Amino acid sequence: MTDLSASPFLAACRGEEPSRVPVWFMRQAGRSLPEYREIRGSGSILDAIADADLSTEITLQPVRRYDVDAAILFSDIVVPAWAVGFGIDVVPGVGPTAEKPFRSRDDLSRLRPMDPEADTPFVTQTVRNLVAELDVPVIGFAGAPFTVASYLIEGKPSKNYAMTKAMMHAEPQLFFDLLDTLADLAITSLRSQIEAGASAMQLFDSWAGALSPAEYRTHVLPHSAKVMAGVADLGVPRIHFGVGTGELLEPMSTVGVEVMGVDWRVPLDEARRRIGPGIGVQGNLDPARVFAGREVALAGTRDVLAANGGELGHIFNLGHGVWPELDPDVLKAVVDVVHTEGLTSPA
Ligand code: CP3
Description:
The chain has helices at 8-13, 34-39, 45-49, 52-66, 79-83, 116-119, 121-133, 145-154, 162-170, 172-195, 213-231, 249-252, 268-275, 287-291, 294-308, 328-341; strands at 71-72, 89-91, 95-97, 138-143, 200-204, 238-241, 259-261, 280-285, 314-318. The protein is α/β, with parallel strands linked by helices. The strands form 2 sheets. It has a 7-stranded parallel sheet. Strands 2-3 form a two-stranded antiparallel ribbon. α9 (162-170) packs across α10 (172-195) and α10 (172-195) runs parallel beside α11. The longest helix has 24 residues, at 172-195.
């Protein structure tokens, strides 16, 4: 096991001075990489995740290629619900799909508590493999209760979250009980990843941006706060991320976080004003700028660094995950500019 005390990523998470501005990319593993497409196979991504040797290799691929400062475990936010037998799959090109969506109180029995050793031994094995091989930190993750609930309730990716919000407003107690159950699953999964050696964690509430601040505070915040409190004693930095959550940055930063993920819609200086002092920021280059080619991507990279203004507690990332269409060579150029031009102290 490597000594991670000099990790720029962990230093930035703690608001300390890193040796360089750290960078990693959400979805850095995956279809944008030819080496991923070569070994991934054609089945469900869940089969690849259940194979610890394959998940280990897939997690390592972007670290080798990009010289990023952290590795994110190759897994998916629906793995705990899948592992306890809810009945959910991830259809290639579509996303998480449940044949029998969550519709009534009876469906709670399809979400029994998870036993990581019996239900997801491949996840802990992958983390242990990674910690043994890597000299950068491994980031563990879970889906936040709201975002996972949206897949279980809709049964498929959704544009307007109609069924999810209908349940939230019309059956608030059932919605509460579902999110509370999903919070327990997330805690169990995160604890198993951290105990296996993950040295930071990210809670993905990717679709919380569908909610108003009042809806978020009433129906969602308590459950995400429960997840963060449920891992607090383990002492690893907690990153919280959502898309289209500019209006929610303030409440989302109060659930127990060391670092707040920011998408590309809010510049980092404005994001810091909304979040307040003492919390780091992660982001926030628009993946569309990477798609536009090297010149636009590098100009965007410099804009992100400038918006941060050399403040401590910045982890460079995209504003959302890497698209399958993005050019790995452009992403590598982004990493190099962050590392060589990123300021580590206020200019
Ligand atoms: O490199 C990494 O970031 C680690 C791996 C990772 C995956 N999913 C692998 C994956 C992570 C962190 C996730 C989290 C995840 N899964 C989120 C939160 C992050 C986000 O994007 O907001 C969400 C919403 C999901 C649900 C999900 N899983 C979707 C929407 C999809 C895309 C469907 C598709 O095929 O386009 C998946 C499948 C998935 N998960 C893929 C990968 C690499 C692509 C499919 C494949 O290779 O078969």
